[in-house]
Design brief:
single chain; alpha+beta; Ribosomal Protein S5, domain 2; four-stranded mixed β-sheet; 4 helices
Length: 192
């Protein structure tokens, strides 16, 4: 289990993350829809996630969402690396009613995000839908993983975002799946 604290002039975050958990979540970000998305992430990745954030929500939600992504990314990096005996690569598509989002993932040690969920101009509840990209960019950058998050179809912003969070979670779970036939790092370089 990784426990982290991060405090800036904009946010104060306390987090614990267990990658090999059972999907338990206790999330308090102050942003209802975002809490729902992080709970879905924990449930479908089978990570145990506890998070409390006090952010400058009176300004907007940007600092809180991005800083939580930074802390989750740092915790994931601490839990995942060095990579040994796992699949490393994964791909999944998650549907939610009319929406389908595909996530490809590589526990590469090299951060990269391709994010294409179409036009996310607008809100889901009070959450600015465009902040999902900021969150995922912060996660992959700090976790040092590569991920492509791409919409296949969908119209409802809630459905699209929820499918994206769930697909990212399932892709992470599958990339971390142990494989007894893989010894050491799953790379021709011998290290990730």
């Amino acid at each position: 289990m990784t426990q982290l604290k991060r405090e800036t002039k904009e946010t104060k975050i306390e987090l614990s993350l267990e990658v090999n958990g059972s999907g338990q979540a206790d999330i308090k970000s102050g942003i209802g829809f975002f809490d729902h998305m992080l709970e879905a992430f924990a449930k479908h990745s089978l990570c145990d996630l506890r998070l409390v954030c006090e952010g400058d929500l009176h300004v907007d939600f940007h600092h809180t969402v991005e800083d939580i992504g930074i802390v989750i990314g740092n915790a994931l990096h601490g839990e995942i690396f060095p990579v040994h005996g796992v699949e490393r690569f994964s791909n999944t598509t998650v549907i939610l009613d009319e929406a389908a989002v595909e996530v490809d993932m590589d526990l590469s040690g090299r951060p990269f995000l391709l994010f294409d969920l179409g036009d996310l101009d607008g809100k889901v509840g009070e959450f600015d839908a465009e902040l999902a990209e900021e969150f995922f960019r912060a996660v992959v950058t700090n976790a040092k993983i590569s991920s492509h998050i791409v919409i296949k179809r969908g119209k409802n912003r809630h459905h699209i975002l929820e499918a994206a969070f769930k697909a990212f979670a399932v892709a992470l779970r599958r990339a971390l799946a142990t494989n007894p036939r893989i010894s050491g790092a799953p790379s021709t370089k011998g290290v990730l």
